[in-house]
Specification:
seven-stranded mixed beta sheet; 114 residues; four-stranded antiparallel beta sheet; globular
């Protein structure tokens, strides 16, 4: 099993930046990939970005060029740097880890004001 703890959410004005962190503990060696998803009020949970154990990244079209996912293996931490934030980026952001199944963090709120 893996435990995930997110941090770094908050309130920011449109055009601003935030960096989310996700610290993983537990069966770290079994993690195949980690990622970020988000869920806005009344909407389904959507893919944002993933990074594999080999460092390959993938992004949703809506965040390409603005968000960057990275990982620090020494700290067992994954980051999501979010630049040029828009009001439509407002959501609860969830960290996820893929082992035999997906594991989820508790989520962190990101609010972008116009």
């Amino acid at each position: 099993q893996v435990q995930l703890v997110e941090s770094g959410g908050g309130l920011v004005q449109a055009g601003g930046s935030l960096r989310l962190s996700c610290a993983a503990s537990g069966s770290i060696a079994s993690i195949n990939a980690m990622g970020w998803y988000r869920q806005a009020p009344g909407k389904q949970r959507d893919f944002v970005a993933t990074i594999t154990s080999g460092g390959a990244t993938n992004y949703a079209d809506s965040v390409k060029g603005r968000f960057t996912i990275s990982r620090d293996n020494a700290k067992n931490t994954v980051y999501l740097l979010m630049n040029s934030l828009k009001p439509e980026d407002t959501a609860v952001y969830y960290c996820a880890a893929m082992l035999a199944r997906w594991y989820w963090g508790q989520g962190t709120q990101v609010t972008v004001s116009s």
